[in-house]
Amino acid sequence: MSTGTADATETRISEPPSSLKEFLSYMGPAWVFTASQIGGGEVLSVPLGGAYLGMEGIWLIPLITFTKIFGQYYLVRYGVMTGDTFLDALYEKGWWLKWIFYYVFLGGIIYAIGLSGHLGETAGAFNSLIPAVGTNVWMIATVLAGLAIVGLRSYGVIEKIATTLLWVFLILVAFVSLRTAGIWAPNLATGLVPSIPGRVEGLGVGGMAFVLTMFGWIGAGFGPTVSYVWFAKDKVMGMFEPLDDGVEIDKYDLTDEEVHRLKGWGDIVLWQNLLSSAILAIFSFFMWTAAAATLHVRGIQPSGFTVIPEMAGIFTTQFGEWSAILFLLTTVAALFSTLIGPLYGMSRLWEDAFALHGLFDNYNITRDTTFRLTIVFFSAIPLALNLFIEAPLILFALSGALFAPVIGLMYLAVMYMSFEIDINSLSPVRKWAVALAVFAGVVMIVSGLWEARGSIETIVGLL
After folding, report:
1. What transmembrane ranges does the database entry give (predicted)?
2. Cα–Cα distance list, 197 to 53, 58, 250 (Å)
3. What are the backbone angles phi and psi of residue 205, rounded to the nearest 5°?
Protein backbone atom coordinates (compact mmCIF):
# COMPACT_ATOMS: atom_id res chain seq x y z
CA MET A 1 0.00 0.00 0.00
CA SER A 2 1.03 3.60 -0.56
CA THR A 3 2.27 5.27 2.59
CA GLY A 4 1.90 8.82 1.35
CA THR A 5 5.02 9.91 3.22
CA ALA A 6 6.36 12.20 0.52
CA ASP A 7 5.78 15.92 0.80
CA ALA A 8 2.55 16.72 -0.97
CA THR A 9 4.15 19.76 -2.61
CA GLU A 10 6.83 17.69 -4.30
CA THR A 11 6.43 16.78 -7.96
CA ARG A 12 8.58 13.70 -8.24
CA ILE A 13 6.51 12.17 -11.04
CA SER A 14 5.00 14.41 -13.69
CA GLU A 15 1.42 14.06 -14.82
CA PRO A 16 1.06 11.89 -17.92
CA PRO A 17 0.08 13.58 -21.19
CA SER A 18 -3.56 14.65 -21.20
CA SER A 19 -3.89 16.01 -24.74
CA LEU A 20 -3.13 14.59 -28.17
CA LYS A 21 -0.27 17.05 -28.64
CA GLU A 22 1.31 16.05 -25.32
CA PHE A 23 0.80 12.36 -26.09
CA LEU A 24 2.52 12.68 -29.46
CA SER A 25 5.45 14.45 -27.77
CA TYR A 26 6.04 11.21 -25.83
CA MET A 27 5.61 8.90 -28.83
CA GLY A 28 9.35 9.05 -29.54
CA PRO A 29 10.24 5.65 -28.01
CA ALA A 30 7.47 4.01 -30.04
CA TRP A 31 8.58 5.78 -33.23
CA VAL A 32 12.18 4.61 -32.76
CA PHE A 33 11.03 1.06 -32.00
CA THR A 34 8.73 0.99 -35.03
CA ALA A 35 11.42 2.36 -37.34
CA SER A 36 13.90 -0.21 -35.97
CA GLN A 37 11.49 -3.11 -36.37
CA ILE A 38 10.28 -2.30 -39.88
CA GLY A 39 13.76 -2.54 -41.33
CA GLY A 40 14.27 -5.94 -39.71
CA GLY A 41 11.88 -8.84 -40.08
CA GLU A 42 9.31 -6.88 -42.05
CA VAL A 43 11.56 -5.83 -44.94
CA LEU A 44 13.20 -9.27 -45.17
CA SER A 45 10.19 -11.58 -44.78
CA VAL A 46 6.94 -9.77 -45.61
CA PRO A 47 7.75 -9.23 -49.32
CA LEU A 48 8.54 -12.94 -49.61
CA GLY A 49 5.02 -13.73 -48.41
CA GLY A 50 3.54 -11.48 -51.08
CA ALA A 51 5.89 -12.82 -53.78
CA TYR A 52 5.11 -16.50 -53.17
CA LEU A 53 1.53 -16.40 -51.89
CA GLY A 54 0.01 -13.34 -53.51
CA MET A 55 -2.75 -12.11 -51.21
CA GLU A 56 -3.10 -15.50 -49.52
CA GLY A 57 -1.83 -15.32 -45.95
CA ILE A 58 -2.03 -11.54 -45.55
CA TRP A 59 -4.39 -12.20 -42.62
CA LEU A 60 -1.30 -13.06 -40.56
CA ILE A 61 -0.19 -9.42 -40.44
CA PRO A 62 -2.90 -8.06 -38.09
CA LEU A 63 -2.91 -11.28 -36.05
CA ILE A 64 0.82 -11.15 -35.32
CA THR A 65 1.30 -7.41 -34.92
CA PHE A 66 -1.63 -7.01 -32.54
CA THR A 67 -0.69 -9.93 -30.26
CA LYS A 68 3.11 -9.77 -29.98
CA ILE A 69 2.92 -6.12 -29.05
CA PHE A 70 1.39 -6.91 -25.65
CA GLY A 71 4.42 -8.83 -24.43
CA GLN A 72 6.52 -5.84 -25.35
CA TYR A 73 4.00 -3.51 -23.68
CA TYR A 74 4.58 -5.24 -20.34
CA LEU A 75 8.37 -5.14 -20.79
CA VAL A 76 8.25 -1.36 -21.14
CA ARG A 77 5.44 -0.89 -18.60
CA TYR A 78 7.44 -2.72 -15.91
CA GLY A 79 10.21 -0.14 -16.10
CA VAL A 80 7.83 2.82 -16.19
CA MET A 81 5.99 1.48 -13.12
CA THR A 82 9.07 0.57 -11.04
CA GLY A 83 12.04 2.60 -12.29
CA ASP A 84 13.92 -0.66 -12.87
CA THR A 85 14.35 -2.13 -16.32
CA PHE A 86 13.38 -5.77 -16.64
CA LEU A 87 17.12 -6.48 -16.88
CA ASP A 88 17.73 -4.88 -13.47
CA ALA A 89 14.90 -6.93 -12.00
CA LEU A 90 16.14 -10.21 -13.49
CA TYR A 91 19.60 -9.61 -12.03
CA GLU A 92 18.12 -9.41 -8.52
CA LYS A 93 16.20 -12.69 -8.85
CA GLY A 94 17.28 -16.23 -8.08
CA TRP A 95 19.13 -18.21 -10.69
CA TRP A 96 15.90 -19.75 -12.01
CA LEU A 97 15.24 -16.28 -13.53
CA LYS A 98 18.67 -14.63 -13.37
CA TRP A 99 20.04 -16.80 -16.17
CA ILE A 100 17.72 -14.94 -18.57
CA PHE A 101 19.68 -11.77 -17.67
CA TYR A 102 22.85 -13.30 -19.09
CA TYR A 103 20.98 -14.80 -22.04
CA VAL A 104 19.73 -11.32 -22.96
CA PHE A 105 23.15 -9.76 -22.28
CA LEU A 106 24.93 -12.21 -24.57
CA GLY A 107 22.14 -11.66 -27.06
CA GLY A 108 23.84 -8.38 -27.93
CA ILE A 109 26.63 -10.33 -29.62
CA ILE A 110 24.24 -12.71 -31.35
CA TYR A 111 22.10 -9.80 -32.50
CA ALA A 112 25.21 -8.12 -33.92
CA ILE A 113 25.85 -11.28 -35.95
CA GLY A 114 22.31 -11.07 -37.30
CA LEU A 115 22.85 -7.41 -38.22
CA SER A 116 25.29 -8.60 -40.88
CA GLY A 117 22.28 -9.42 -43.03
CA HIS A 118 20.72 -5.99 -42.50
CA LEU A 119 24.05 -4.26 -43.17
CA GLY A 120 24.49 -6.22 -46.39
CA GLU A 121 20.95 -5.39 -47.49
CA THR A 122 21.46 -1.69 -46.73
CA ALA A 123 24.69 -1.59 -48.70
CA GLY A 124 23.05 -3.57 -51.51
CA ALA A 125 20.21 -1.07 -51.74
CA PHE A 126 22.70 1.83 -51.80
CA ASN A 127 24.68 -0.02 -54.46
CA SER A 128 21.55 -0.43 -56.60
CA LEU A 129 21.14 3.34 -56.50
CA ILE A 130 24.82 4.16 -57.12
CA PRO A 131 26.53 0.96 -58.37
CA ALA A 132 29.87 2.58 -59.23
CA VAL A 133 30.91 2.78 -55.57
CA GLY A 134 30.77 -0.93 -54.72
CA THR A 135 28.98 -2.85 -51.96
CA ASN A 136 31.96 -3.07 -49.60
CA VAL A 137 32.46 0.69 -49.69
CA TRP A 138 28.76 1.21 -48.98
CA MET A 139 28.97 -1.15 -46.01
CA ILE A 140 31.90 0.76 -44.53
CA ALA A 141 30.16 4.09 -45.18
CA THR A 142 26.96 2.82 -43.55
CA VAL A 143 28.83 1.68 -40.43
CA LEU A 144 30.71 4.98 -40.16
CA ALA A 145 27.46 6.93 -40.51
CA GLY A 146 25.83 4.78 -37.84
CA LEU A 147 28.79 5.22 -35.48
CA ALA A 148 28.78 8.98 -35.99
CA ILE A 149 25.08 9.21 -35.08
CA VAL A 150 24.89 6.68 -32.24
CA GLY A 151 28.28 7.73 -30.86
CA LEU A 152 26.76 11.04 -29.79
CA ARG A 153 25.02 9.01 -27.05
CA SER A 154 21.99 11.22 -27.51
CA TYR A 155 18.59 9.59 -27.39
CA GLY A 156 17.10 12.85 -28.70
CA VAL A 157 19.18 12.65 -31.90
CA ILE A 158 18.24 9.00 -32.42
CA GLU A 159 14.57 9.85 -31.91
CA LYS A 160 14.61 12.70 -34.44
CA ILE A 161 16.44 10.71 -37.14
CA ALA A 162 14.44 7.50 -36.64
CA THR A 163 11.13 9.37 -36.60
CA THR A 164 12.00 11.17 -39.82
CA LEU A 165 13.08 7.94 -41.53
CA LEU A 166 9.93 6.20 -40.28
CA TRP A 167 7.58 8.66 -41.93
CA VAL A 168 9.70 8.88 -45.08
CA PHE A 169 9.53 5.17 -45.77
CA LEU A 170 5.91 4.88 -44.66
CA ILE A 171 4.86 7.53 -47.16
CA LEU A 172 7.03 6.09 -49.93
CA VAL A 173 5.94 2.47 -49.53
CA ALA A 174 2.29 3.55 -49.28
CA PHE A 175 2.70 5.42 -52.56
CA VAL A 176 4.35 2.41 -54.22
CA SER A 177 1.66 0.00 -52.97
CA LEU A 178 -1.28 2.20 -53.90
CA ARG A 179 0.11 2.56 -57.42
CA THR A 180 -0.50 -1.18 -57.80
CA ALA A 181 -3.85 -1.33 -55.97
CA GLY A 182 -5.70 -2.27 -59.15
CA ILE A 183 -3.80 -5.57 -59.17
CA TRP A 184 -4.03 -6.67 -55.52
CA ALA A 185 -7.28 -5.07 -54.32
CA PRO A 186 -9.67 -7.61 -55.96
CA ASN A 187 -8.12 -10.44 -53.89
CA LEU A 188 -7.85 -8.56 -50.59
CA ALA A 189 -11.08 -9.85 -49.03
CA THR A 190 -10.11 -13.46 -49.75
CA GLY A 191 -6.62 -12.94 -48.33
CA LEU A 192 -7.99 -11.62 -45.03
CA VAL A 193 -9.86 -14.89 -44.42
CA PRO A 194 -7.69 -17.19 -42.25
CA SER A 195 -6.34 -20.15 -44.21
CA ILE A 196 -3.29 -22.40 -44.19
CA PRO A 197 -0.67 -20.67 -46.37
CA GLY A 198 1.15 -22.44 -49.17
CA ARG A 199 4.88 -23.04 -49.29
CA VAL A 200 7.35 -20.14 -49.40
CA GLU A 201 10.59 -21.56 -50.77
CA GLY A 202 12.39 -18.29 -50.08
CA LEU A 203 12.04 -19.11 -46.38
CA GLY A 204 12.06 -22.88 -46.82
CA VAL A 205 8.71 -23.37 -45.04
CA GLY A 206 5.01 -23.61 -45.71
CA GLY A 207 1.70 -24.15 -43.91
CA MET A 208 1.84 -23.83 -40.12
CA ALA A 209 5.64 -23.70 -40.28
CA PHE A 210 5.32 -20.48 -42.28
CA VAL A 211 2.90 -19.11 -39.67
CA LEU A 212 5.40 -19.87 -36.87
CA THR A 213 8.26 -18.36 -38.87
CA MET A 214 6.31 -15.15 -39.42
CA PHE A 215 5.50 -14.99 -35.70
CA GLY A 216 9.24 -15.02 -35.07
CA TRP A 217 10.19 -12.45 -37.69
CA ILE A 218 7.58 -9.68 -37.69
CA GLY A 219 5.81 -7.57 -35.08
CA ALA A 220 8.53 -7.23 -32.43
CA GLY A 221 12.07 -8.53 -32.91
CA PHE A 222 14.68 -9.03 -30.20
CA GLY A 223 16.84 -5.96 -30.83
CA PRO A 224 14.03 -3.39 -31.23
CA THR A 225 12.00 -4.92 -28.36
CA VAL A 226 14.86 -4.84 -25.85
CA SER A 227 15.95 -1.39 -27.02
CA TYR A 228 12.44 0.04 -26.54
CA VAL A 229 12.89 -0.32 -22.76
CA TRP A 230 15.96 1.96 -22.85
CA PHE A 231 14.23 4.38 -25.22
CA ALA A 232 11.51 4.82 -22.57
CA LYS A 233 14.13 5.12 -19.82
CA ASP A 234 16.00 7.86 -21.68
CA LYS A 235 12.69 9.60 -22.39
CA VAL A 236 12.32 9.67 -18.55
CA MET A 237 8.77 8.38 -18.41
CA GLY A 238 7.01 7.49 -15.15
CA MET A 239 9.31 6.22 -12.38
CA PHE A 240 12.33 6.85 -14.60
CA GLU A 241 11.80 10.60 -14.03
CA PRO A 242 12.76 10.89 -10.33
CA LEU A 243 15.68 8.52 -10.85
CA ASP A 244 16.90 10.68 -13.72
CA ASP A 245 16.62 13.71 -11.43
CA GLY A 246 18.75 11.96 -8.80
CA VAL A 247 15.83 11.63 -6.38
CA GLU A 248 15.83 8.55 -4.14
CA ILE A 249 12.40 6.96 -4.37
CA ASP A 250 10.88 3.68 -3.27
CA LYS A 251 7.61 2.22 -4.46
CA TYR A 252 6.35 2.05 -0.85
CA ASP A 253 7.02 5.78 -0.49
CA LEU A 254 4.67 6.78 -3.30
CA THR A 255 1.80 9.13 -2.52
CA ASP A 256 -1.70 8.33 -3.74
CA GLU A 257 -1.32 11.06 -6.37
CA GLU A 258 1.96 9.57 -7.60
CA VAL A 259 0.38 6.13 -7.86
CA HIS A 260 -2.46 7.66 -9.88
CA ARG A 261 0.05 9.33 -12.19
CA LEU A 262 1.99 6.10 -12.67
CA LYS A 263 -1.21 4.34 -13.71
CA GLY A 264 -1.67 7.10 -16.27
CA TRP A 265 1.86 6.55 -17.57
CA GLY A 266 1.07 2.85 -17.89
CA ASP A 267 -1.88 3.78 -20.11
CA ILE A 268 0.41 5.97 -22.21
CA VAL A 269 2.73 2.99 -22.77
CA LEU A 270 -0.28 0.90 -23.83
CA TRP A 271 -1.42 3.47 -26.38
CA GLN A 272 2.14 3.87 -27.62
CA ASN A 273 2.31 0.16 -28.33
CA LEU A 274 -1.12 0.01 -29.94
CA LEU A 275 -0.24 2.86 -32.29
CA SER A 276 3.12 1.27 -33.01
CA SER A 277 1.49 -2.06 -33.86
CA ALA A 278 -0.97 -0.28 -36.16
CA ILE A 279 1.91 1.35 -38.06
CA LEU A 280 3.75 -1.98 -38.29
CA ALA A 281 0.59 -3.60 -39.65
CA ILE A 282 0.08 -0.82 -42.22
CA PHE A 283 3.69 -0.94 -43.40
CA SER A 284 3.66 -4.75 -43.62
CA PHE A 285 0.37 -4.58 -45.54
CA PHE A 286 1.86 -2.18 -48.08
CA MET A 287 5.06 -4.23 -48.48
CA TRP A 288 3.09 -7.47 -48.91
CA THR A 289 0.70 -5.99 -51.47
CA ALA A 290 3.53 -4.34 -53.41
CA ALA A 291 5.30 -7.71 -53.71
CA ALA A 292 2.05 -9.51 -54.58
CA ALA A 293 1.32 -7.01 -57.35
CA THR A 294 4.80 -7.12 -58.87
CA LEU A 295 6.64 -10.38 -58.17
CA HIS A 296 3.74 -12.80 -57.64
CA VAL A 297 1.84 -11.90 -60.79
CA ARG A 298 5.00 -12.52 -62.84
CA GLY A 299 5.85 -15.79 -61.13
CA ILE A 300 9.12 -14.45 -59.73
CA GLN A 301 10.11 -16.25 -56.52
CA PRO A 302 13.20 -14.61 -55.00
CA SER A 303 15.23 -15.71 -52.01
CA GLY A 304 15.42 -13.61 -48.86
CA PHE A 305 18.35 -11.43 -49.97
CA THR A 306 17.29 -10.87 -53.61
CA VAL A 307 13.69 -9.81 -53.05
CA ILE A 308 14.44 -6.06 -52.87
CA PRO A 309 16.49 -5.87 -56.13
CA GLU A 310 13.87 -8.05 -57.88
CA MET A 311 11.06 -5.72 -56.79
CA ALA A 312 13.06 -2.67 -57.84
CA GLY A 313 13.57 -4.21 -61.27
CA ILE A 314 9.83 -4.80 -61.69
CA PHE A 315 9.03 -1.23 -60.69
CA THR A 316 11.51 0.03 -63.29
CA THR A 317 9.83 -2.03 -66.00
CA GLN A 318 6.25 -1.34 -64.94
CA PHE A 319 6.32 2.30 -63.83
CA GLY A 320 9.69 3.67 -64.81
CA GLU A 321 13.06 4.12 -63.13
CA TRP A 322 11.74 6.85 -60.82
CA SER A 323 9.49 4.34 -59.01
CA ALA A 324 12.40 1.94 -58.47
CA ILE A 325 14.45 4.78 -57.00
CA LEU A 326 11.58 5.63 -54.63
CA PHE A 327 11.33 1.98 -53.57
CA LEU A 328 15.08 1.67 -52.98
CA LEU A 329 15.11 4.90 -50.97
CA THR A 330 12.30 3.42 -48.88
CA THR A 331 14.34 0.29 -48.28
CA VAL A 332 17.50 2.23 -47.40
CA ALA A 333 15.62 4.37 -44.88
CA ALA A 334 14.01 1.31 -43.28
CA LEU A 335 17.20 -0.73 -43.07
CA PHE A 336 19.37 2.11 -41.77
CA SER A 337 16.88 2.85 -38.98
CA THR A 338 17.10 -0.82 -38.00
CA LEU A 339 20.84 -0.45 -37.61
CA ILE A 340 20.96 2.74 -35.50
CA GLY A 341 17.99 2.16 -33.16
CA PRO A 342 19.01 -1.24 -31.71
CA LEU A 343 22.70 -0.26 -31.84
CA TYR A 344 21.88 2.53 -29.39
CA GLY A 345 19.50 0.43 -27.27
CA MET A 346 21.68 -2.68 -27.04
CA SER A 347 24.70 -0.56 -26.12
CA ARG A 348 22.69 1.13 -23.36
CA LEU A 349 21.69 -2.34 -22.15
CA TRP A 350 25.34 -3.42 -21.95
CA GLU A 351 26.26 -0.16 -20.22
CA ASP A 352 23.65 -0.78 -17.51
CA ALA A 353 24.64 -4.44 -17.23
CA PHE A 354 28.27 -3.47 -16.60
CA ALA A 355 27.05 -1.00 -13.96
CA LEU A 356 25.22 -3.81 -12.15
CA HIS A 357 28.52 -5.71 -12.00
CA GLY A 358 30.32 -2.71 -10.45
CA LEU A 359 32.42 -1.72 -13.46
CA PHE A 360 32.07 2.03 -12.90
CA ASP A 361 32.51 1.78 -9.13
CA ASN A 362 35.64 -0.35 -9.24
CA TYR A 363 37.47 0.92 -12.33
CA ASN A 364 38.39 4.32 -13.74
CA ILE A 365 36.11 4.19 -16.76
CA THR A 366 33.06 6.29 -17.55
CA ARG A 367 29.66 5.31 -18.86
CA ASP A 368 30.24 7.38 -22.01
CA THR A 369 33.48 5.56 -22.80
CA THR A 370 31.90 2.16 -22.18
CA PHE A 371 28.94 3.03 -24.39
CA ARG A 372 31.15 4.13 -27.27
CA LEU A 373 33.43 1.09 -27.00
CA THR A 374 30.32 -1.08 -27.09
CA ILE A 375 28.89 0.50 -30.24
CA VAL A 376 32.25 0.06 -31.98
CA PHE A 377 32.26 -3.60 -30.93
CA PHE A 378 28.68 -4.18 -32.11
CA SER A 379 29.43 -2.42 -35.42
CA ALA A 380 32.70 -4.24 -36.07
CA ILE A 381 31.09 -7.69 -35.82
CA PRO A 382 28.66 -7.46 -38.78
CA LEU A 383 31.11 -5.42 -40.87
CA ALA A 384 33.95 -7.91 -40.41
CA LEU A 385 31.69 -10.89 -41.02
CA ASN A 386 30.37 -9.39 -44.25
CA LEU A 387 33.78 -8.31 -45.53
CA PHE A 388 35.65 -11.52 -44.77
CA ILE A 389 33.07 -14.33 -44.73
CA GLU A 390 30.55 -12.97 -47.26
CA ALA A 391 27.85 -15.45 -46.24
CA PRO A 392 24.88 -13.40 -45.00
CA LEU A 393 22.42 -16.29 -45.13
CA ILE A 394 24.59 -18.45 -42.86
CA LEU A 395 25.13 -15.55 -40.46
CA PHE A 396 21.45 -14.67 -40.34
CA ALA A 397 20.56 -18.32 -39.79
CA LEU A 398 23.22 -18.66 -37.07
CA SER A 399 21.77 -15.67 -35.25
CA GLY A 400 18.31 -17.24 -35.36
CA ALA A 401 19.53 -20.64 -34.20
CA LEU A 402 21.36 -19.25 -31.17
CA PHE A 403 18.77 -16.80 -29.96
CA ALA A 404 15.34 -17.67 -31.27
CA PRO A 405 13.29 -18.30 -28.06
CA VAL A 406 14.53 -15.36 -25.98
CA ILE A 407 11.68 -12.94 -26.74
CA GLY A 408 9.09 -15.37 -25.41
CA LEU A 409 11.18 -15.99 -22.29
CA MET A 410 11.41 -12.23 -21.68
CA TYR A 411 7.64 -11.85 -22.08
CA LEU A 412 6.82 -14.59 -19.56
CA ALA A 413 9.51 -13.50 -17.09
CA VAL A 414 8.34 -9.89 -17.03
CA MET A 415 4.71 -10.99 -16.64
CA TYR A 416 5.72 -12.94 -13.53
CA MET A 417 7.66 -9.98 -12.13
CA SER A 418 4.84 -7.55 -12.96
CA PHE A 419 2.50 -9.37 -10.60
CA GLU A 420 5.04 -8.80 -7.81
CA ILE A 421 4.31 -5.06 -8.02
CA ASP A 422 1.93 -4.94 -5.08
CA ILE A 423 1.31 -1.20 -4.82
CA ASN A 424 -2.28 -0.05 -5.37
CA SER A 425 -2.97 -1.95 -8.58
CA LEU A 426 0.28 -1.00 -10.31
CA SER A 427 0.48 -4.67 -11.23
CA PRO A 428 -1.38 -5.64 -14.44
CA VAL A 429 -5.17 -5.23 -14.25
CA ARG A 430 -6.27 -5.80 -17.87
CA LYS A 431 -6.93 -9.53 -18.04
CA TRP A 432 -7.34 -9.52 -21.82
CA ALA A 433 -3.94 -7.83 -22.25
CA VAL A 434 -2.32 -10.29 -19.85
CA ALA A 435 -3.83 -13.19 -21.80
CA LEU A 436 -2.50 -11.82 -25.10
CA ALA A 437 0.96 -11.26 -23.60
CA VAL A 438 1.12 -14.82 -22.25
CA PHE A 439 -0.16 -16.17 -25.57
CA ALA A 440 2.52 -14.17 -27.41
CA GLY A 441 5.20 -15.43 -25.02
CA VAL A 442 4.27 -19.09 -25.48
CA VAL A 443 3.96 -18.78 -29.26
CA MET A 444 7.29 -16.96 -29.43
CA ILE A 445 9.05 -19.77 -27.56
CA VAL A 446 7.48 -22.38 -29.85
CA SER A 447 8.21 -20.37 -32.99
CA GLY A 448 11.69 -19.61 -31.69
CA LEU A 449 12.50 -23.28 -31.23
CA TRP A 450 11.08 -23.96 -34.68
CA GLU A 451 13.19 -21.17 -36.15
CA ALA A 452 16.27 -22.57 -34.41
CA ARG A 453 15.58 -25.96 -35.99
CA GLY A 454 15.15 -24.39 -39.42
CA SER A 455 18.23 -22.21 -38.99
CA ILE A 456 20.39 -25.21 -38.13
CA GLU A 457 19.10 -27.01 -41.24
CA THR A 458 19.87 -23.91 -43.32
CA ILE A 459 23.40 -23.72 -41.95
CA VAL A 460 24.02 -27.41 -42.68
CA GLY A 461 22.65 -26.98 -46.20
CA LEU A 462 24.81 -23.92 -46.94
CA LEU A 463 28.08 -25.26 -45.53
Report:
1. 57-76, 96-117, 129-152, 164-185, 205-231, 268-288, 322-344, 370-389, 395-419, 431-450
2. 7, 9, 51
3. -140, 165
Q: Comparing C-alpha atoms, which of 428, 448, 447 is closest to residue 436? A: 428
CB 291 within 8 A of CB 140: no
Query: For residues 46 and 287, is the Cβ–Cβ distance under 8 A?
Result: yes
Tell me the one-letter amino acid at 328: L
Where residue 53 falls among pLDDT bands split at 50, 70, 90?
Answer: very high
Q: SS3 letters for 370-389?
A: HHHHHHHHHHHHHHHHHHHC
Give the C-alpha separation, 37 to 32, whole Å.
9
Rounded Cα distance between 346 and 374, Å, is: 9
Question: Is there a contact between 69 and 77 (Cβ–Cβ < 8 Å)?
Answer: no
Radius of gyration, alpha carbons of the chain: 22
- Of 52-56, 235-239, 306-310, give the lowest mean pLDDT range: 306-310
Q: Report the topology of domain 22-462.
A: Amino acid/polyamine transporter I (1.20.1740)
Contact in structure between 17 and 255 (CB atoms under 8 Å):
no
CA dist 30 and 223 (Å) reads 14
CA 85 to CA 414: how far, in whole Å?
A: 10
Helices (H), 192-244: 208-217, 222-234, 240-244
Are 284 and 49 in contact, with CB atoms under 8 Å apart?
Answer: no
pTM here is 0.87
Query: pLDDT band at 403, cuts 50/70/90?
Result: low
User: What are the phi and psi torsion angles at 147 (to 5°)?
Assistant: -65, -40
